[in-house]
Amino acid sequence: MDNRTIAQLLGETADLLEISNADSFRVRSYRRAAEAVESSTVQLSTLCSDVKKLLEIPGIGKGMAANILDMEKTGSLPLREELLAKYKPTMLELLKLPGMGPKTVALMWDALQVGSVEELETAIAEGRLNNLPRFGAKQIEKLRKGIEDHKKNSGRFLIDEGEIAAEKIIAYLRAFPGLEKVEVAGSLRRGRETVGDLDILATGPACAENLVSAAVDYTAAYPPIADLIAKGQNKVSFRLRNGLQVDVRLLPESSYGAAMQYFTGSKMHNVTVRQRALKKGYTLSEYSLARLDDGSVVASATEEEIYAALGLDWIPPEMRENNGEIEAAEQHRLPELIRQGDIRGDVHMHTIATDGKNTIREMAEAALARGYEYIAITDHSKNLAMTNGLDDARALEHVRRIREVDKEMEGRIRVFPGIEVDILGDGAVDLSDEVLAQMDVVVASVHTLFNQPIEEMTARVIRAIENPYVRILGHPTGRLLLRREGFQIDLRAVLERASALGVAVEHNAYPDRLDLCDRDLRLAKELGCRITVNTDSHHTSHMEKMRYGIRQLRRAWLRKEDVLNTLHPEEFLAALRPLP
Ligand code: DGT
Ligand code: CA
Ligand code: CA
Ligand code: ZN
Q: By the 8 A CB rule, do 21 and 106 touch?
């Protein structure tokens, strides 16, 4: 069992304990253990033969160690199963709705015997929530809307969850003798922000017609399979424990390129490419590009050959959305897309001063290890009290410490002082101008009052970026993928103003934000906005999430020169809006 699954089971148990009104100390011990496991850099399953090592992890006591051993052995956590049986297995789904915490779930259960999203929907429709204490018409409407969004999203997964699952399956398949090339196709290959299912293609000598059944058997024996959906001649479909469906196809080497092209999609890209093939007297299928007249194969082994035979440059998967990429490929003017290695700094991250898990120094060392030339430390401001946000005095003290660490690093990496300053309800920012003036990187973000009418929210954000010290607008729409839609805002108006002022807009690479989305990033570029891509790391391990952001920038057709933090440190500061 991987750390993520262990952490998830522990976290769910904490939620269930809280729903059952258990002792808060007990709830906390599960939550702390979940966090410890989540952020642990060692694979816990490798420690299970040695309980002492498990106990060395802070947050893991004797009881928790026993739980982890249990999970490793049985694949489940008895207390969690017990609590789920007391309520309903669907209980945890309710927590995914916005505004539904354990206390509210407990209330719904106690008062109305509601134990699933569906039951809640019915209860709302029947007006049974109207007599509940603490539930006004507004909250009920919010819940109803939340259920609607939830239903729209359910069945999709965040890109990181998809990618982690895919990497494991690929490693498993590569271990089979004669499976030489194993790659992901579908929406994950295109870098879409969420994925519906995984499409994995494999080829090699083991896929030859007389051999493939052994490879199919091996695929169907992948240990984490929770539910084998179908096992065909060269295709295996299954579901993982988290509900994610996976389609694996084992293909002869001769048609691998055609299959990659077909199963990468998108559907609309493929439709357009196929029409183009027909015009040229060809037919394009998942097996080959062939002549219409005599059926002879023109190209099939690689994507490059297929695109070339159609008079097109090879198109990066992130661009295959039928947004003009085919015309660009025909005219040999596809942009050179930004790559992960182009990034030289990460300028939005948190430390233990607020809700981060590491020190300034640890963040700097981790960034240095990634090869970065600079970071900015941007902790929260006081309006976010639950994060222990900084007031003016603490912010100044923090700036001093950041400058100290910058010196300690002796030029190996620059550490810029900054803040993620809250945009208050009226568009004022949360700290004084004198304090903001001490910082190099002021990111301004909305974290509260998401429900303002669109005019008010637009005016609010524009007022905030008009503050002359604000240099970056953080996660501009506030969306949380699969959980919360972005707030209502006239984004074009905001981006136009940001462009005029020289305020950069952020693409927040954290996989449940990916905000601005690909489409809006393209708009930002069109409007002449400066753009940065940041991880918003709350832990050293989060810095690697940059790669999910890079995928979105590529989907927006952005090049290295469109993104400020591809610059060297001094150039980067100079490219931000000039300070007053
Ligand atoms: P997803 O799974 O919802 O995140 O999105 P995709 O793009 O991975 O879609 P999926 O898994 O249904 O199919 C993978 C690719 O295979 C898709 O992008 C294009 C191709 N494909 C699948 N079924 C069809 C089809 O019926 N017609 C066409 N033209 N292409 C298809
Ligand atoms: Ca798919
Ligand atoms: Ca699929
Ligand atoms: Zn934020």
A: yes
